[in-house]
Amino acid sequence: MNATQTLIALWTLVVKEVKRFTRIWPQTLLPPSITMAMYFIIFGNLIGSRIGAMDGFSYMDFIVPGLIMMAVITNSYSNVASSFFSNKFQRSIEEMMVSPMPNWVILSGFVLGGMARGLWVGLIVTVVSLFFTRLSMEHPLLTVLVVVLTSALFSVGGFINALLANKFDDISIVPTFILTPLTYLGGVFYSISMLPDFWQGVSMLNPILYMVNVFRYGFLGVSDIPVGWALMAILSFIVVLFTVALKMLERGKGIRS
């Protein structure tokens, strides 16, 4: 395939993925906005009014960036995991594998589709948050950069999950037992400076902590960890996972029997 044909193939795959989740928007776009609205009401208004300030900001202002990031992470991951596994289950992925389409195009197409849903949901949640607080961005470019990188990272993670899954139940194992605990322990609802030194050190092993803190820094200008280190960590995770996913796809892991 030449460059033009490759771009057409990539664009076609991305459009297919976007149409897939927008066609069923009551299942893909509406539930996250309702769920996050409940978080804003319960944690932000009801509980937050009793907690008081966190790092010099109201509790609502403190948790909003983390909740937006949580929505982006969850939806980027689940979109690719469910979409690719459905293609694998229906055996339509085999048609892509035998086509002239390069493997990196297949991977990138699904990842970009997952990013589209994650970022779309993130935007919706951001709009919903405006009903509860006034948002301001100290570093707009950094905010956009980190949410795009995070969406890309977890889209690739969802792709790997789908490759390894043997049945639909396997798709929910990682989000339930790994992704959700890491998200809740990633500084969404608290500052790790509140923790004892030992648990602060343990928290530094949580990759979601870096993403939440850089995103919060973009909004509020405060972070529990150095922003430069966090960005390097996120980029490193993306490179490693993308390479792993591409190698697995080239070997037909989970596809060829």
Brief rundown of the structure:
This protein is mainly alpha-helical.
Number of helices: 11
- Beta-strand level of the residues, as a percent range? under 5%
Strand order of the largest sheet: 1-2
Helix and strand content put the structural class at mainly alpha
InterPro entries: ABC-2_transport_permease, ABC2_TM, ABC2_TM_bact-type, ABC_2_transport
Transmembrane segments: 30-47, 59-78, 104-132, 144-165, 171-192, 204-222, 228-249
Keywords: Cell membrane, Membrane, Transmembrane, Transmembrane helix, Transport
Membrane topology: Multi-pass membrane protein
What would your notes on this structure say?
- The structure is a single chain.
- Helices cover 77% and strands 2% of the residues.
- A hairpin with a 2-residue loop joins β1 and β2 (57-58).
- With 257 residues, it is mainly α.
- The chain is globular, with a radius of gyration of 19 Å.
- A two-stranded antiparallel sheet has the order 1-2.
- The two termini are 27 Å apart.
- It is a multi-pass membrane protein.
- It comes from Vreelandella vilamensis.
- This is Transport permease protein.
